[in-house]
Design brief:
Layout (H helix, E strand, L loop, with lengths): L4 E7 L3 H11 L9 E8 L5 H6 L6 E7 L5 H11 L4 E5 L3 E3 L3 H7 L7 E9 L7 H8 L8 E2 L8 E5 H6 L13 H9 L6 E12 L5 H22 L22 H10 L2 H13 L4 H25 L13
Helix pairs in contact: 8-11, 10-11
């Protein structure tokens, strides 16, 4: 029997949270015979593959194991290549899936299949509430616009028809460091006739990884260092309509005073320290969100500027991708 949905999970040294993800998939309202799970072990050293090989699940699980780490793009492409169903659901290895998650994604395609669906992600109750988790949850509202910009193509909890994914060529495997590979494919998908990206808050999953703000900002800085320049070179026109255009140099552009001031603030360690203090002190609301937005933009730009000064090369296969 061919499954109606394939869940693709990239995993790198995430055995502790992966077990929770797989357990939650065993409690779905969608019958276990109607879906499959494809776990792609991206060179883990924590015993992920060994643990999976010794376990039985109520659903069919396929395991792909790479000997070395190559990044999320390669792992997700490999998972889709192995998947047998016409609908792909990307779920990260630190997600707790609510019982109706798979059914909600499946139902979202009853009226057609020229779209992708982003589900809602909130922080799991087992994770301590922090300024970072409050900001993260505020970006995933219970209600919102039914269609999203290409930059919201985020693969923590996202479904897409396999045919549409393959039509656009899948993920660009040049991206090996953390981040932006999903924005890249989102921008390419947006060029397909009739395609749109939809938001479905009822398709709910919970993030189970406890992250510190400074650690998260360091990861985003690596994204800027290794990935942002390549994205800008691929989408030199589209990048002008994104928030990135506020601070990233554009081809042939002579930045005005406003942009130079923004770039100066982006590189200021004094501004960064001040905003870090505010991030932990401000109550939820408009200014809290803006402080976090700026901190993450600053981290991205800091890495990008470093890449331009030092001519940073893409991460090589076998290096730690940090996801």
């Amino acid at each position: 029997m061919i499954p109606v949905l394939s869940v693709v999970i990239p995993s790198f040294n995430s055995l502790k949270t992966l077990t929770l993800t797989l357990e939650s998939l065993g409690e779905q309202t969608l019958g276990a015979a109607r879906f499959e799970v494809v776990v792609v072990d991206d060179g883990s050293s924590d015993g992920t593959s060994e643990w999976l090989e010794g376990r039985k699940f109520p659903y069919e699980l396929q395991l792909i194991r790479f000997p070395s780490n190559g990044g999320c793009s390669r792992t997700r492409n490999a998972g889709v290549a192995r998947a047998r169903s016409p609908l792909i659901l990307f779920v990260d290895s630190d997600m707790f899936c609510t019982p109706t998650l798979l059914q909600k994604h499946l139902d979202a395609y009853r009226g057609g299949d020229r779209h992708a669906v982003v589900g809602r992600v909130l922080t799991h109750s087992s994770i301590p509430t922090t300024a970072l988790t409050r900001w993260f949850d505020s970006k995933n509202p219970a209600h919102g616009t039914p269609t999203l910009a290409p930059t919201r193509f985020i693969t923590q909890n996202l479904s897409i028809p396999a045919s549409v994914f393959r039509e656009v060529g899948g993920f660009d495997e040049w991206f090996r460091a953390y981040g932006i590979e999903d924005i890249d494919i989102g921008l390419r998908l947006a060029k397909l006739p009739g395609y749109e990206l939809r938001y479905l808050p009822d398709a709910l999953a919970f993030h189970c990884q406890d992250e510190k703000l400074e650690e998260k900002l360091d990861k985003v800085s690596r994204t800027g260092r290794h990935n942002l320049g390549y994205l800008c070179s691929k989408f030199s026109i589209e990048i002008r309509s994104l928030g990135l255009a506020q601070f990233v140099p554009l081809p042939g552009e002579k930045p005005g005073l406003r942009k130079r001031l923004i770039q100066l603030a982006m590189t200021s360690s004094v501004v960064r320290r001040m905003l870090l203090r505010l991030a932990h002190q401000l109550p939820d609301g408009f200014f809290h969100r803006k402080v976090f937005d700026f901190l993450f933009a600053q981290a991205l730009f800091r890495g990008y500027r470093e890449s331009q000064r030092k001519h940073v090369q893409p991460m090589q296969v076998g290096s730690v991708s940090g996801y």
